[in-house]
Amino acid sequence: MLHESKWQAESTRASTVRRKRRQRSVVQRIASKSSPGSGSRSTRPTGRLDIRSRSSGDWSATSFPWLGTRPVDEIAAPDVLSALRRIESRGAIETAHRAQQNCSQVFRYAVATGRAHRDPTGDLRGALTPVKERHHASITDPKKVGELMRAIAGYDGSPITKCALQLAPLTFVRPGELRRAEWKEFDLEKAEWRIPAARMKFREQHIVPLSKQAVSPLKEVQPITGSKQFVFTGARTNGRSMSENTVNAALRRLGYSRDEMTGHGFKSMASTLLNEQGWHRDAIERQLAHSERNAVRAAYNYAEHLPERRRMMQAWADYLDCLKTGAKVVKLSRVAWSDARRRVENAQIG
To answer: Per mean pLDDT, which range of 73-77, 155-159, 320-324 is the poorest?
Structure first.
């Protein structure tokens, strides 16, 4: 009887310990609950909730080895900084900053759900090495843009890669947004591409009006990849999107060095020339999908200036055609876009 009583007491203590361990929430458990698809909408932190870093793969490879198994309410700012310094010491400055943002999202969720009292990452403002602004090589001289367009038209590699090369200057989206494009995002009848917020840098849905010149290569590649998820499938991957280096490698194959032109450079090219041509600045900025500082306004602005953006995107494509064919270059204002199309058609007939 004594033995049985002792066993029951030990069992009760063990059960109590296990219960307390479950109650002492650890970072990794909180992070999994704060990821999309879990928790109530009202308690989720704002911003990106995914614990994965876009450039470093699983966040467990960066912060979790040092923070993941610790009780979230026992972690202080120096603990987080120590983990971030390990990332920073590898020279991965941007990854360290993204890891800090991810940590902050986890802590904010923990505060919202009563698991922690505060977010210690707020005390680390300015502690990490600043990210140096990178300027991606770009071509903005109209004559050289025409040479680039002719080179792209003559690309003799994979038709999937050629389609990506053709769309890059016509849509000027970010390289990651382009290479991960999915067929379900496109409505070729309406000539529209809607990129979901989850795939955009600033987590806002983005509408890309498609010019006639952009729809054409998509229809050409549709018989090849139309039955798959991604428009631009990888050459050596089963059903996955093309590599992030594919477009840049194609530009190198065309003879452009990394100091002359990059996949990111098409945004700068469009921004520079569209502003020179006198298009409404707000329409240009919205089409470039630059950050909207006011979060409430941003939620409704994905379709802002859309009629003018449609005109602008067709005029831009016509302008690139003019440059490609060597036609006389004019500044395409909002009232001159149809004239450019007529000049291109006359040049093709001649």
So the answer is: 73-77
Report if pTM > 0.70: no
Q: How far apart are CA 243 and CA 25, in angstroms?
A: 38
CB 185 within 8 A of CB 229: no
Contacting residues for 206 by C-beta, under 8 A, at least 6 apart: 173, 177, 194, 195, 200, 289, 302
The burial class, CB within 10 Å (0-12 / 13-18 / 19+), for 112 is: middle
Measured at the alpha carbon of residue 210, what is the angle toward residues 207 and 211, in degrees to the nearest 5? Answer: 145
Secondary structure in 3-state letters for the chain: CHHHHHHHHHHHHHHHHHHHHHHCCEHHHHHHHCCCCCCCHHHCCCCCCCCCECCCECHHHCCHHHHCCCEHHHCCHHHHHHHHHHHHCCCCHHHHHHHHHHHHHHHHHHHHCCCCCCCHHHHHCCCCCCCCCCCCCCCCCHHHHHHHHHHHHCCCCCHHHHHHHHHHHHHCCCHHHHHCCEHHHEECCCCEEEECHHHCCCCCCEEEECCHHHHHHHHHHHHHHCCCCECCECCCCCCCECCCCHHHHHHHHCCCCCCCCCCCHHHHHHHHHHHHCCCCHHHHHHHCCCCCCCHHHHCCHHHCCHHHHHHHHHHHHHHHHHHHHCCCCCCCCCCCHHHHHHHHHHHHHC
Confidence band, pLDDT 50/70/90 cuts, at residue 65: low
- Residue from 247, 222, 159, 211 nearest 321 by CA: 211
pLDDT at 36 over 60: no
Instruction: Tell me what percent of the residues of the chain surpass a pLDDT of 70.
Output: 69
Query: Does residue 208 contact residue 195 with C-beta atoms inside 8 Å?
Result: yes
pLDDT in tens, 126-147: 888 887 766 678 999 999 999 9
